[in-house]
């Protein structure tokens, strides 16, 4: 199981707001909710699942701003692919929270 952080920024849209683009990109995640788990944050989106599925979904997400009029799109991806044990977004948070309690 891999975890991907993705930030997609449409450029040259004529407005500083990108929330319409974010909402359109988010629809791709909703359409793939059986393949990936996702969490929208104020600055990026975190996606969890099989690496092949994640890369396919990110590719589809990257295309959405173009389909909505953007002429240039900058997509940043960070992949956390740990293979020595099963890890999830939830498990990672619980691990840190437990360490904070133990202090």
UniProtKB/TrEMBL annotation:
One of its GO terms (cellular component) is cytosol. Belongs to the UPF0045 family. SUPFAM superfamilies: MTH1187/YkoF-like. This is MTH1187 family thiamine-binding protein. It comes from the Bacteria. Residues 81-103 are annotated as: Disordered. InterPro entries: MTH1187/YkoF-like, Thiamine_BP, UPF0045_domain. Residues 4-97 form the Thiamine-binding protein domain.
